[in-house]
Amino acid sequence: MENKRKFNNLISAYAVQCSKCFKFRIIPTREEYETIRQNFIKDPWVCHNNPNLSCNDPGDVEYNTSRFWVIDKPNLPKTPAGLDRLAIMRSDFSKMDINYVMPNGKRLRSSVEIEKFIEANQEYKGRFTPADFSFTPPKIPEEMIPKGIEGSSSKKKKTGL
User: Where are the beta strands (DSSP E) in 49-123?
Assistant: First the structure.
């Protein structure tokens, strides 16, 4: 029997920035967001990709510190079907760690762990490969890091540690 643990998704919204007007638009689902992210360089997202939007419409959300933002790199592979990709913030806000939750509930944290998992669980061979995964974490903008956090990347840069 497979362990079907569910993890709470702490992400309250997915947004993408129009490559023409630079306004942020809310994307309704993680799957749609990941599809946009996967193809962003060869197919930059623009407001008119949504038939109900134009660059003349106001943005859905403004980038500011009233909410905590992290920024994904473009062209990361879409999470394989049936798996979860978790971005976990370190307590010192220095970076995020990426974990993939496999169908049996096991969390994997590196490409080496993915390879070992596939080798040990032959039923997943052919369903996905290590190339289907990216452990590249989202960037935490400097202005999002709370002031006074020990060990944050901003503190290390300022003190030269």
Answer: 84-89, 96-101, 107-108
